[in-house]
Amino acid sequence: MNRPLAIDPIFDTDFMREMLRQMRALDSYGMHDGKPIDIQLAPFVLSKEARAAIPLLGDPDQRTLSRVKAFYNAIAVLIEKECGLMAVPLVHLSHEGFGRVLITVGKLVALDRALRDVHRFGFESFSKMKTEADKQLSVALELVGRHADVAGL
Amino acid sequence: MNRPLAIDPIFDTDFMREMLRQMRALDSYGMHDGKPIDIQLAPFVLSKEARAAIPLLGDPDQRTLSRVKAFYNAIAVLIEKECGLMAVPLVHLSHEGFGRVLITVGKLVALDRALRDVHRFGFESFSKMKTEADKQLSVALELVGRHADVAGL
């Protein structure tokens, strides 16, 4: 492992650190221990061409699904950190890459998104991934702030 | 089919009618068409002994799972009828009969229950099934009424 550690400041953000933590939790045998963060998170980056090349056949595989879960788990952890209330993520695939993801805080649905083409889950760059997460996080936190009574139930 | 139609007044309630509708929706080939309602809903009734005899091994089968979905779909339909807002059920099994069921109305979690031992999903009698549904329905409707702003989002 002679490669220097990634130094892009994006990897120093709370979100990217949490993403790394989520990916490490999935790595039961420590196969990726010690690898730089950009290598460990590399499966989240897919160019347009790479995405288009993935066939939308049958159900997405477990590794893809675990990345979707890692992404929304990380957002849930950040919601929790920010508002101090438990945020529970639920990624539900119905069939062939369609589904729904919810993050609930108390009795409030802080995040509710339809999923489609989960087979091709990925982002064009780390920066786009973080932008997307930040957007979803801020919408969720705004909702929690506006309906603190329901979120506190 | 010489058996007379079920005449227990419980089958005339909104909930039991909706349960029948849900079961019919699952019966793609009309195999149970024309059968009395108590026969069609019979799989929901399990004595204590019958429940105990079902092994808790592996994941519950699809037919059991579809009954769980039918039950919560029916509750969602009644919530919707009562409050006029769309109620979306989500039955999520994580593993080996454990899971979580949510019914969301707008951004409100109107119902949120942990599921366990789904293999043994059933009720001691139709009357207990209806009592349980009524209880969950009234809790959900009370929440929707109290947080109409969030339910309307």
Descriptive notes:
Two copies of one chain form a homodimer. Chain A is α+β, with helices and mostly antiparallel strands. Chain A has a single domain, classed as Protein of unknown function DUF269 (Putative cytoplasmic protein). Chain A contains six helices and three strands, in the order H-H-H-H-E-E-E-H-H. A three-stranded antiparallel sheet of chain A has the order 1-2-3. In chain A, helix 1 crosses helix 4. The longest helix of chain A is centred in the middle third of the chain and has 22 residues. Chain A is globular and about 45 Å long. The mean pLDDT of chain A is 91. Chains A and B meet through strand 2 and strand 3 of A and strand 2 and strand 3 of B. Chains A, B: InterPro entries: NifX-assoc_nitrogen_fix (IPR004952). Chains A, B: This is NifX-associated nitrogen fixation protein.
What would a concise description of this structure say?
The structure is a homodimer of 153-residue chains. Chain A is an alpha+beta fold and 153 residues long.
